[in-house]
Amino acid sequence: MYTRLCSTDELNCLIIFVDYSETIKALDLIKKLSIFAKIISTPKAVFSASSLAIAINSNDLEKAVSEVEGKEIKPIKISKLDKCALSYHFQY
After folding, report:
1. Which DSSP symbol is given to 87?
2. Domains of the chain
3. pTM exceeds 0.90, yes or no
């Protein structure tokens, strides 16, 4: 196993869920693939309903979604962003 250094600036995709337990299960599956991921509250600019999202790098999106959907966990929405997902929450 190896560790890849990842900047939070690279978290430019969101896999959005409404159910908390599905979010946790999906994060566990994604982390087993050695993909850097973080759970964040979904920015209202991306999805207006109250929900959680897993922020990941766009290069890992296809692999992560395949694994999650292969285990019958269905995200409500998948979004590629123009900027880091965390920048919706923090003003620099």
Report:
1. G
2. 8-86 (3.30.70.120)
3. no
